[in-house]
């Protein structure tokens, strides 16, 4: 089973096996720490700059580190999937 997180360096989505403590990004070589077990993560797209944001599930708002927009987090965890646009590499989300 794999989990995912956002690279601290280039903001790419990284997949990693459960139980890993750190993940090295293949694009920028940044090492990103994996959140401890029990800290389930959710994702949303920033309303200001369209960056994909990851946050701890249960948060009520999320500040984007790129544009500083404060985004309201959905009250219930929603199940969404992600795909990268083959033309511009933008991350797209869908139910």
Automatic annotation (TrEMBL):
InterPro entries: LSD1-like, Znf_LSD1. It holds the Pfam family zf-LSD1. Coiled coil: none annotated. It is found in: Nucleus. Keywords: Nucleus. One of its GO terms (cellular component) is nucleus. The keyword NADP does not apply. Residues 7-31, 46-70 form the Zinc finger LSD1-type domain. PANTHER family: PROTEIN LSD1. This is Zinc finger LSD1-type domain-containing protein. It comes from Arachis hypogaea. The lineage of its organism: Eukaryota, Viridiplantae, Streptophyta, Embryophyta, Tracheophyta.
């Amino acid at each position: 089973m794999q989990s995912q997180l956002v690279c601290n360096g280039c903001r790419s989505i990284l997949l990693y096996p459960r139980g890993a403590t750190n993940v090295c990004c293949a694009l920028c070589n940044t090492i990103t720490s994996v959140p401890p077990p029990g800290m389930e993560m959710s994702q949303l797209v920033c309303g200001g700059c369209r960056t994909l944001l990851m946050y701890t599930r249960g948060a009520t708002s999320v500040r984007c580190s790129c544009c500083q927009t404060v985004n309201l987090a959905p009250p219930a965890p929603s199940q969404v999937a992600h795909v990268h646009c083959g033309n511009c590499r933008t991350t797209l989300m869908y139910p």
